[in-house]
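Backbone geometry:

***
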Amino acid sequence: MQVEDDANCFVCGPLNEHGLHAKFDVDVEQQSARCRIIIPAGFQGWQNIVHGGILATLLDEASIYACRSVTVNCVTADLSVRYKKPVKVGDELIVSAQIVEQKKRIFQVAARIEVDGVVHAEAQSRVFKLK
């Protein structure tokens, strides 16, 4: 599978006028990624609550960026999200992920979203390294 980055990713693409414009820092030594972001009201579900799909999307993107500490091109094979607390619109989120294990071309990744040091959502994913 061939993939190309055209800077229009919904989560991190600087050219996507409707996107989140998240900026992830990648730590090669820790095989991890981290982002600080505030989600505006346009991405809410219930009043003043960030839509769960947006949270899942952020966890997915953080997992991909953690894998970018090892390789450039990869895709999510599966993602399991656990929501623990609602996230309010306007809260500053810390979205982070770390590779837990690698077997050949499959990465096991743990990701989380925190607000003020409290975990609000977490995910486990398998990410596939493309050739």
